[in-house]
């Protein structure tokens, strides 16, 4: 066999290996787990800008949105399983097609309202208590170089940015910490009408209550509104890597204490 023939065979085998690897990775991403990057602070302190996590795509079954670019040839939902209240969920925005991550608060048939920053679920205030102060450095965060909102604003670059920590406990017992920036609780998101969640839809709110585009604001007003079941992509499971800098190559900005942390 000539040297040229051996070289050609080697190139073909390399191409095959790459194609097989891409197919396996594509199947894994579509069927089992999808990596997801946190680009904004809407889920602080549960999730921070620069967290990389895995999303369990088996949790709620599959829809057309389970594939990249919503290309899965699925009508409705295949092997669908209802999500639990309190889950942290990645879903496809009903209008603009972006992937969002928020906490599931309202199930089909529920009523949801915010009064003076207090979450009201089915007419009953959700138990909440102040548990401390969340602090972070006021500085640009992540590739987008976003600066955090602070309850003690104005804060100069390098200063300490503070937010009130409030622990909520849902009727089923799920407990998590939210952040409050607007201490007077007089923002559009702190004072809402009563929302009734339609059948086949869900109501989502970000844990960083005064810095989140979510179901409290309609899609027409640049919010999320009610999210159809088929738009759910999966449940956030575990943070595998976290970097607070502009680039993940800035090793000094890695948050080792968040590696492999379970999302709750």
Describe this structure in words.
- The chain has a single domain, classed as Umud Fragment, subunit A (Ribbon), CATH 2.10.109.
- Helices cover 11% and strands 31% of the residues.
- The protein has one helix and 15 strands, in the order αβββββββββββββββ.
- The chain has one helix at residues 3-31; strands at 33-37, 51-56, 88-92, 99-106, 111-115, 118-121, 124-125, 128-137, 160-169, 175-180, 195-196, 201-205, 227-228, 232-242, 261-262.
- Strands 1, 2, 3, 4, 12, 13, 14 and 15 form an eight-stranded antiparallel sheet that branches. A four-stranded antiparallel sheet has the order 7-6-5-11, with no helix packed on it.
- The longest helix has 29 residues, at 3-31.
- It catalyses: Cleavage of hydrophobic, N-terminal signal or leader sequences from secreted and periplasmic proteins.
Topology:
Layout: H1 3-31, E1 33-37, E2 51-56, E3 88-92, E4 99-106, E5 111-115, E6 118-121, E7 124-125, E8 128-137, E9 160-169, E10 175-180, E11 195-196, E12 201-205, E13 227-228, E14 232-242, E15 261-262
Antiparallel strand pairs: 1-2, 2-14, 3-4, 3-14, 4-12, 5-6, 5-11, 6-7, 8-9, 9-10, 12-13, 14-15
Number of strands: 15
Parts with pLDDT < 50 across at least 5 consecutive residues: 16-28
**Structural class label:** mainly beta
Which CATH architecture would you pick? Ribbon
Fraction in helix = 10-25%
Named CATH topology? Umud Fragment, subunit A
* Order of helix and strand elements from N to C terminus: HEEEEEEEEEEEEEEE
Determine the mean pLDDT: 88
Instruction: Tell me the number of structural domains.
Output: 1
- The end-to-end distance, rounded to whole angstroms, is 60 Å
Radius of gyration: 21 Å
CATH superfamily: Umud Fragment, subunit A
Main sheet summary:
8 strands, antiparallel
CATH class membership: Mainly Beta
The proportion of strand residues reads 25-35%
Number of helices: 1
Write down the overall geometry: globular
């Amino acid at each position: 066999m000539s040297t040229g023939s051996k070289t050609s065979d080697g190139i073909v085998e390399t191409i095959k290996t790459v194609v097989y690897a891409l197919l396996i990775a594509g199947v894994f991403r579509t069927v089992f787990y999808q990596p997801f990057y946190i680009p904004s602070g809407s889920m602080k302190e549960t999730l921070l800008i620069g967290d990389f996590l895995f999303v369990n795509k088996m949790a709620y079954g599959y829809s057309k949105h389970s594939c990249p670019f919503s290309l899965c040839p699925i009508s409705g939902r295949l092997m669908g399983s209802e999500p639990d209240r309190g889950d942290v969920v990645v879903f496809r925005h009903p209008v603009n097609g972006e992937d969002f991550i928020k906490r599931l608060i309202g199930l089909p048939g529920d009523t949801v309202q915010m009064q003076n920053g207090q979450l009201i679920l089915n007419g009953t205030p959700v138990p909440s208590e102040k548990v401390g102060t969340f602090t972070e450095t006021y500085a640009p965060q992540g590739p987008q170089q976003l600066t955090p909102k602070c309850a003690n604003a104005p804060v100069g670059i390098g200063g300490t940015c503070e937010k009130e920590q409030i622990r909520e406990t849902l009727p089923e017992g799920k407990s998590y910490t939210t952040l409050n920036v607007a201490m007077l609780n007089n923002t559009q998101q702190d004072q809402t009408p009563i929302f009734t969640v339609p059948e086949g839809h869900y109501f989502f709110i970000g844990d960083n209550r005064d810095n989140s585009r979510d179901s409290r604001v309609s899609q027409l007003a640049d919010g999320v509104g009610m999210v159809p079941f088929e738009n759910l992509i999966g449940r956030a499971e575990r943070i595998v890597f976290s970097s607070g800098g502009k680039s993940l190559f800035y090793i000094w900005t890695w948050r080792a204490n968040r590696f492999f942390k379970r999302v709750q």
